[in-house]
Amino acid sequence: MSNLPDQLLAGYRNFMGGRYISESGRYRELAREGQTPETMVIACCDSRAAPEAIFDAGPGELFVVRNVANLVPPYAPDGEYHSTSAALEFAVQSLKVKHIVVMGHGRCGGIKAALAPDAEPLSPGDFIGKWMSLVAPAADAVSGNTMMTAGERQTALERISIRYSIANLRTFPCVKILESKERLSLHGAWFDISTGELWVMNRETGDFERPDLD
Ligand SMILES: [Zn+2]
């Protein structure tokens, strides 16, 4: 008897009867040859913003790391546990990805928490509070803007934090060097859950724009 929730087992049954059958050759090849994804995506844990679904990606196409609010911490070789930096190191140094996309999304709970730093922590460890302190200066600046509505502040910080994370990516020597050699490009994107719209960061201006899909 399995302990997995029925919904997961039913989903797995569908996967084996559908997608796995149509992609079994691809899975076998990936098992034999290893993975060679060209794109790393840094996305939020939020169940509504799955990169593989949004980019319609098959197995082996995207190397994904997800964390609360899709943040990249600055380079800090301090002997502590850095899961996102470990994923980044592997993607850049071993897989040699050509693109890194930091993808944020609307209604992000992590960003909401950053805008309410005095709220009661969810647990004594306050891991979210510590993690979201990565964007504290921006959160403070946005929180203090009374010209904006709460929704506007939320969207603003979601997008500003993407630029923050991209700046932090450049603090990793390997990223900075490869980007300067034009072997690696950094991108920002923001997904609106309710409409499905994807907004892409203009690399010159930092503004977010709707891409031309034609
Ligand atoms: Zn989120």
UniProtKB/TrEMBL annotation:
<keyword id="KW-0862">Zinc</keyword>
<dbReference type="Pfam" id="PF00484">
    <property type="entry name" value="Pro_CA"/>
</dbReference>
<dbReference type="InterPro" id="IPR036874">
    <property type="entry name" value="Carbonic_anhydrase_sf"/>
</dbReference>
<comment type="similarity">
    <text>Belongs to the beta-class carbonic anhydrase family.</text>
</comment>
<feature type="binding site">
    <location>
        <position position="44"/>
    </location>
    <ligand>
        <name>Zn(2+)</name>
    </ligand>
</feature>
<dbReference type="InterPro" id="IPR045066">
    <property type="entry name" value="Beta_CA_cladeB"/>
</dbReference>
<dbReference type="GO" id="GO:0008270">
    <property type="term" value="F:zinc ion binding"/>
</dbReference>
<protein>
    <recommendedName>
        <fullName>Carbonic anhydrase</fullName>
        <ecNumber>4.2.1.1</ecNumber>
    </recommendedName>
</protein>
<feature type="binding site">
    <location>
        <position position="46"/>
    </location>
    <ligand>
        <name>Zn(2+)</name>
    </ligand>
</feature>
<dbReference type="InterPro" id="IPR001765">
    <property type="entry name" value="Carbonic_anhydrase"/>
</dbReference>
<keyword id="KW-0479">Metal-binding</keyword>
<feature type="binding site">
    <location>
        <position position="108"/>
    </location>
    <ligand>
        <name>Zn(2+)</name>
    </ligand>
</feature>
<dbReference type="GO" id="GO:0004089">
    <property type="term" value="F:carbonate dehydratase activity"/>
</dbReference>
<comment type="function">
    <text>Reversible hydration of carbon dioxide.</text>
</comment>
<feature type="binding site">
    <location>
        <position position="105"/>
    </location>
    <ligand>
        <name>Zn(2+)</name>
    </ligand>
</feature>
<dbReference type="GO" id="GO:0015976">
    <property type="term" value="P:carbon utilization"/>
</dbReference>
<keyword id="KW-0456">Lyase</keyword>
<dbReference type="InterPro" id="IPR015892">
    <property type="entry name" value="Carbonic_anhydrase_CS"/>
</dbReference>
